[in-house]
Fold this protein.
Amino acid sequence: MKFKFKLAYYLIGLMLGVYFVTQFLQSKAEASGVEFCYFPNCRVLQDIRKKPFDIDSVAQATLEEKWVNLDDIKNTLKYGDVDFSKSNKPYKRGKLYIIEGKTSQNQDITLSVINFENRAVLENIKKE
C-alpha cells in the first residue's frame, strides 16, 4: 500500500476518533453540569456567577425604573463581554469589572460589578 493511502486512512480514523471522543465528553459534561471556560471573558463571568450576588442601592434604583430587569442582568452575566481595558482594577477591596450586554428589548447596557473574594456586587447599570 502506498504512503498516501496509509496517511489518508490514518487521518480519517483520527478525525472519526476525535469526533466521537468530543461528543462523548461534551454529553458527559452537559449531564453533570460542568462548563469548560478557558478564555478570560468566560472565566471572569463564570467566577462572578458562582458567587453570592448582591445589588447596590444605585443599581436597585435603576432596576425599579423598569427598563431593565433581573433576567437582563443574568443574561449579561452569562453572554456579556468584559471590557478588560476598563476592568480588573482594584476598587473598594475588590476588583471592578465593566460588562457590556443587551436587554430583552435589544438596548445596550453596561454593568459595573465589584468582584470580591466571597461575593459579587452589582454597583451600577448604564444605558448606552
